Fold this sequence. Notes:
The chain is mostly helical. It has two domains: 1-159, Hypothetical protein af1432 (Orthogonal Bundle); 161-272, no CATH class. The chain contains 15 helices and two strands. It has helices at residues 9-18, 20-33, 37-54, 68-80, 86-94, 97-113, 125-130, 132-147, 149-158, 163-170, 176-194, 198-211, 222-232, 234-243, 255-270; strands spanning 3-5, 119-121. It has a two-stranded parallel sheet. Helix 3 (37-54) crosses helix 6 (97-113), helix 8 packs antiparallel against helix 9 and helix 14 (234-243) packs antiparallel against helix 15. The longest helix has 19 residues, at 176-194.
Amino acid sequence: MSLELKINPEEVSNRRERISSNVEEFKVKLDNRFKDSESRESVSKALNLMLDAHLSQKDRADGTPYASHPLEVAQNVMNITKEDNADLVSAALLHDVVEDKSEVLFTKRVNKKFPDRDFMFEVSDQLKEKYSDIFKRFSFKELKDNFGDKVEYYVNNLTNHDFDSFIEDAIPDASKEDKQKLKNILYAEHVEKIIKDPDLCLLKYADFSANIDLRSLPKDGDKYKKLRRKYKSVIPVFIKQLDDIPKEHSLYNRKDELIKNLEKIYKEQYQD
């Protein structure tokens, strides 16, 4: 044993059991989709890392284990495109690991460097916030070593910046409402920038489309109101970018369908 993260094994076991059917369904789909053993093994490795990271994370607002989300995003990628691209599916599985659970990848990388040490590593929110850059830097190196340049590139771009810390430093005396407005603007600009890359547009759409349906949340709840404000201005940005997807990209043949889906959700849930 070397460096070990402090987690609650009972919670992890409970979430693993609750998501087991989703994982098995994904594995079947993976076996059917990827006939090349190297590609299949790469995606399987990404799946295992995703589970290792996110099963220790608290449940989503709807009460489901967080790991169900990257599974859904990866399945969305496979549903949207018929291209057998292990890098895209792996990136979909891992798109939130650095942003949410960088301590897991940090720990794995440290263990490679110091395999003969034995420490218990307890990560507080304060520690993670203070040393965010270090955690992320080690995490991206770990992804690159294990999955290659493209997966690291995809996940790096899909990872949101630490908007909260930036805003707190830049305008500490601003109201909570004004800080949230600025955060939403920075998020929208980030999305608009990265989805100019068609691969990132595909990946971000697979993620975004899984998040913008707010029907499971109570309309009078803070979570619903916060997410509605966050996503409302981004949906038109996505529609415009999808309309400009180049013909040679695998996303092109599905763009009209995806645009209609976004327009429908916008009309039903976001239009005042």
